[in-house]
Amino acid sequence: ARRLGMAGVELRSDVFETLSDKELARATRGSRYIASLRHNDPRWLEQSGRASIWDIDVEFIDDFLNLSPTKLPETILISSHPETVHNDAFDKLDEAARRCAEHLGIPDEKIALKYAPLVSSWDELEGFLNLADRFRKSPRQETLLPRGSGLAWMRPILAHRNRTNYLPIGLRSRNPDHPSAMDFQDFLPHLAGSYPRNFDALIGDPVSASQGDIWHRRAALSEIIINDKIDVPRTSYLKIPVSRGQLDQALTILNRLPIRGISITSPLKREAIEIHRVENPKHLHAVNTLRRIDADDSRWQATDTDEAGMDASLEYFKSQSIGPGRAVVFGRGGASFAVLRALKARGWTIVAHLSGRNGWQREHLDISDIDLIINASGTRGEPNSNTPPCRAWLDLHYNHVSEPPTDVIHLQGDLFFDAQARAQRFFWSRTSNSEYPQ
Predict the structure, then answer these.
(1) Could you tell me the pTM of the whole model?
(2) Could you give the CA distance from residue 211 to residue 209 in angstroms, rounded to a whole number?
(3) Under 8 Å between Cβ of 112 and 94
(4) Nearest to 114, CA basis, from 82, 144, 85
(5) pLDDT digits 0-9 by tens, 160-206
(6) Backbone dihedral region for residue 414 (phi beyond 0: left; psi -120 to 50: alpha; all else: beta)
(7) Beta-carbon neighbour count of residue 326 at 10 Å?
(8) Hey, is 3 helix, strand or coil?
């Protein structure tokens, strides 16, 4: 918490029944800490010693006001953690804060608000953002932390405005399989540097296993030194789960957030071109990249940077005296359209375009004089079963890379995805430099 400049560590009354001096020393290791009341016995707070913040669930505000404490921390945080988003959440918290200030005789600036609802749908997320606008118009400091599966990506966006970015501890007893903070691994990369002015995002389902953030962080690091001057990267990269059929609503909501560009993965590459707010000037059959046209514009422009990745791969094979020649493409997913375009543009002959779902068949062994096989399929099955002889093999994966046939030049997806990420960042950089919604 100290190294990352966080507000401290959180000690909860439903985890620590008592707070002895020894427990406090062991739990906080000298860091600032927050004492969070999560039951109806506020006397627990009186054991919290030098806590810099008391976090009181609004459901127990009456119990707290009956305590009449003689010593107060620097800040009192009135919080709410409902199981759904409620339209009256701000009013409820603001009223509790007003009562608290009057009862304790302390100024308003010593009381902050925290709203941490469970958000279970895009509709609820939209409602949460509407409430966030109300919280931000209040003179009180606020902390906004939507909870829920797949919502860790919201934490970095809210981080610089939140009053209490703290590190939860004591989770081992509640979740033995994952004792660290719930989404700290997602939160950590965005705390390890200066706060970005805006974000880029990967969307799709699933996104947790994607390594797109690795390629983009690597590309961002290479962009730091420009003209022999150190330049702090303007953007950071998020991974946002979006399922089939949710894209239109997701884009509406993401348009309200400081997101500059979007990388699209399965299963949305073809769905994206059907969305009315997506402009597809090249009339592509599938797209993998969107950029915000303007900060005040709800439209997104689409392109497909997989073609740049394929160009880089073909350039490598050319350096190995392979191609242009005869190629077989295995897999008919969204990436295959860009693969085919790049092959045709460089003078390759496409002998066959096979279905990854159907797999390699016995008759494919008879295809002759193949210079290159591209595995652009998913990770199911054994893609090299019944494959014809070839001189080179390109596998468009960064994990679960199958062993290629022997005696061929083999290239896995690193070069492809690195070039693809750089092309995406160039496309995103053409977006207006206007400030994005915060």
Answers:
(1) 0.85
(2) 6
(3) no
(4) 144
(5) 778 777 766 644 454 555 444 444 555 555 555 566 777 889 999 98
(6) alpha
(7) 18
(8) coil
